[in-house]
Structures are given as C-alpha cells and as structure tokens.
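Two entries, shown back to back:
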Amino acid sequence: MIKYSLKNRTHKLTSIFFLFIGFSFFCFAQDISVNPSDPDKTKIFSLDECDSLFSEYYRNSSISDEDLKILIDGIGSLTDSLEKILLENKKMRDIKKQNELLILYLEHAEILSTIYNYGGMNHQGKLIKKIDKDLKRFLKLSGLEGEVYLKYADYLYTKLPLPETKRFNTILTLPVLYRMALLKDKNNKAAFVKLSCWQIAAADETTSNFNSQIKSTEEYIEELNEVDKFNAYIWYSIFYMKTYDTKKGWYHFYKAKNIFPDHPLVSLLYENYKKGILIL
C-alpha cells in the first residue's frame, strides 16, 4: 500500500483548495467503458470508479499500488486513443467519443497530478510533464463540450502549489473556463458552484454582487459528488464567517466535517477559526 500524507503538506497546499473545488471528479459524468476492440485490453477506470477512488483518497490519504498502476496504464491507453483521433480527418471524427475520452483522460490526469502534488509519485515527474504537454494538443480538438472545460479547470487546480506554476495566469484562467462550460451548458450546476467558490476569496460583507451569486448557487451543493461537496462546504463556511453569519459558517463547517472527518483541512480550518483567521 502506498500512503501519501496530506497532513505534512497541508500548509503548502492550502492555496490549491480555493481552486480545488478538483473539485476533481464531477458528479454529472456518465460511466464510460473501455472499447472492447482495444487491442491491449488495458483496464481503465470508469468515471464512477474515478469518483470513488478520489473519495477514498480524501478519506484515507492513500491509494493502493494496484489502483495507482491502473491509473497510469489507463492514462497511457487513453493517450493512444486520443492520438488516433488527432490523426483523423476533422470531418470524420466522432465528436461524442472524442469528448468522452477527453473527460475520462482528464479524470485520470487530475487524480495522478493530485497524488503527485501531495508529495507522492516523485518518480513519476516525467509522466506529469507528458500529461501537461499532451493536454495542450488534445484541447485544440474542435467540438469540445462544456464538461471538458470544467474538467480542465479541475486539472489546473492541481498545478497551483507547484513552484514553477504561473499561479496568477492560472487563477485568471479558472473563471474563464467555468463560463465557457456554462456557455455550453447553462444548467451545469457544478460549474455554477465552482465559479461561486472561486469568488469567495474576494468576497466579504461589502461585495454584494459576488455575495448574491454565491448564495444563489448554494442550493446546488448537495447535488455534487463527495469531494466537490466537501470542498464547497469548506469554502461556503469561510464565506459565511467572512460575512459575519457565524451560525451558517459553523453549519457548513460541520457539513464538510461529516463527509471527511479526518481530512487535514477540517482541523486546519477549525484551528484558524479559533484564532479569528477566516481563511485556510
């Protein structure tokens, strides 16, 4: 069993959670199977399996050797499939299949990048760099769905704590990706919540424009998956504390704690609140 501690890297990674609302593994994705005609028959985690795997990582701070190998082998197989699509005539491409593959690729990429940034998988630095390079090409494909933009935003969250990351440009890119996702699908509730969470860092009792947006999307939180829900409750707790509604602030804090009680963000935020610090 490989165990990657979240606690030792908490302070370095707290910035990621403003943007990690990573929040990786969206609740609205459908299950995608491996094409039975794939010659290598590589096992690839479905979207639902990725979602479960990420929840377990949040819950236990660990991932098994076997699951990690499946993730690495799976992203290799998905890369091969996307490479083939790049070589196809644009008019002949199966856009639906292309988007399904991209979303699943980004799911795998996000979890691998997250583990890497938590201090594990240091020997896989070349793999992460390859993912970064490949994504630049894959995201130039035409006909991208809103969910692809949303998943790409999730992937960017994982890059923020790295020293070489251009944090400023990344932070500015996130709301653009949220809005692109909403332009493609105006009913994408995950995109609404994530955009609101992005706004919380700048919100306080004087920012009525942000506050209205943030409050209007609060009702969608319960529809998110476990990880996204946890992160959303953390940031809505901060929002209400900043706007002096401490009752709601604590309410959202304990909603988050009930999902992942041992996650280091829970103890960190609790200690900050005791000190009067209304931020991670």
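entry 2 starts here
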Amino acid sequence: MHNRTLGAVFIGISVVLFGIRYLTAAIITINSQVYILFDEALQDVGKAPVILSIISLAIGLYHVYGSVFVQWYKKDLNRIESNWKELDESGSEGRNP
C-alpha cells in the first residue's frame, strides 16, 4: 500500500472515530427532548474516541506529507548525483595519469 493511500485511510479512520462520539451520545439520548442530557451523554462517552481520532489524524498526515517530502528529496538527490557525475566526467578529461 502506498503512503498516500495509507495516509488517506488513517484520516478516514480519524473522521469516523470523531463522529462516533457524537453518534453514541445521540443514540443514548434518542428518547429525550432535553439538550442538557445530550451534553451529559457526550461527557459520559469519554475522550477516548477524540484522542484516538487525533492520533489517527496525526499518523495520516505524517504518511500523506511524508510521502511528498520523500519524493521531493529523492528528486533533489538524483539531481545532485547527476550533477556530481557530470562534474567528475568533465574534471577527469583534462588530467593525464
């Protein structure tokens, strides 16, 4: 699996985990008409889905942007290597061993 795809999967997991907290609180308070009860249910669900969502988002962004930076560095390293070879070839023509 490519890094960008893996990053997109982790970002998707992050979105699902973030929404699960609100969905769970809504299911708990489905028979109630009081919004204060929804806030209490939201607190009862806890912070675990939000924390896991943030971790998953960080991993996803790392994979998405990490793959971009790796390609950028590879391109620069290849350019440096080709310039180095050209410099070696042009510098060795004038010398006699």
